[in-house]
Give the backbone structure.
Amino acid sequence: MRIGMVGTGYVGLVSGTCLAEFGTEVICVDKEQSKIDKLLSGEMPIYEPGLDILVAKQIQANRLSFTTEIADAVKGSDAVFIAVGTPPRRIIGDADMQYVYTAAREIAKNLEGYTVIVTKSTVPVGTAREIERIIREENPKADFDIVSNPEFLREGAAINDFMRPDRVVIGAETDRAKEIMREIYRPLYINETPIVMVSLETSELIKYASNAFLATKITFINEIADICEKTGANVQDVAKGMGIDNRIGSKFLHAGPGYGGSCFPKDTLALAQIGEKNNAPQTIVEQVIKVNASRQRKMAQKIINAFDGNIRGKKIGILGIAFKPNTDDVRDAPSLTIIPILQEAGAIISAYDPEAKKQAELQFENLEWKENPYEVAKDSDALVIITEWNEFRALNLKRIKEIMNGNIIIDLRNIYKLPEMKELNFHYISVGREEILPNQSDKIKKAS
């Protein structure tokens, strides 16, 4: 079995490397020579735990190679995966398909013998049919089938997600294509991984529907957190009580500053556009998009309210810039909304993130970067936790209090226990839980 992987971004690089780990020969192609050179030298273009080790292992085993020539990845391959980006278009918000269709045309020109063309990129319903049309137009004599095989990789846990997935979704129409796909994923049969065989359109929609549902779940618990703050309930206990119900489940019921990253924001927007184009409005998803955007602004206001509405000249330390732990991805991260609002209100911002500094420096101005959480806390009037990196979960809070100028901790991820913060006499503000007021600061207003 030989596979060509078009695109060495997050999805293509992880998928290609894991397929090589299965024992398959994989040729990854990318137009950027500098990226290919870095990969060959062991430098990863993304941060994903364990990926550098796995890539080096597969290169050493001669199962994984990299090239800038698409012909090398297509000719002689049993299957060619399209794993290029589908970013949202800036004004409309629907998926930008130019890279997918360009890849399809280039693949068509290099096809030799029967080949399965697999869309791994997240694409709107109907894309597989359009790719088929493009390839037949470019190469009428080509012998091929189109398959949809969406990815379900979580950043920070992508290798495990690929190796031990909840399910593998395959949209295919011919027995020949199905057999090739079964052979590709044969190693997963050992773990009895469910292989869901469906139509092309169904496969494409499963990915969008899945991400939109998870985004909805996050948004739902965030709105419940607002009720908790007004009524004295505890959102973590509410989520626990809900999650025990097998019909609901506990995952994605963690209140916070809203969802971000490379998937949920663009996929909810794309699904809303798909619904609009097909006269099937996705009103729930549309509302989720609006609520999430307002959520991030509300978290900035929460911080400002901790200072009675006046944050000018205050030193605010930020812990965590990436949209989630174990990644350097800052795309649509809550920090991108929260920090500029604080700066506009006159705050002086310092920040630390274990991995996202390089990416974040491209997004922020007038941000003072620190080397660890304690440097951030030193002389700060308030400390704000935006991303729940593990190293933030067990900070020496006594030391933190000694070196801070103020005593306010605003925990947007609820990683600390209320009794602990009360005992340390912090002014502790979290999400959907009781606000802890220090003994000497009873006059401080509650943050909304």
The domain at 199-448 is CATH 3.40.50.720 (Rossmann fold).
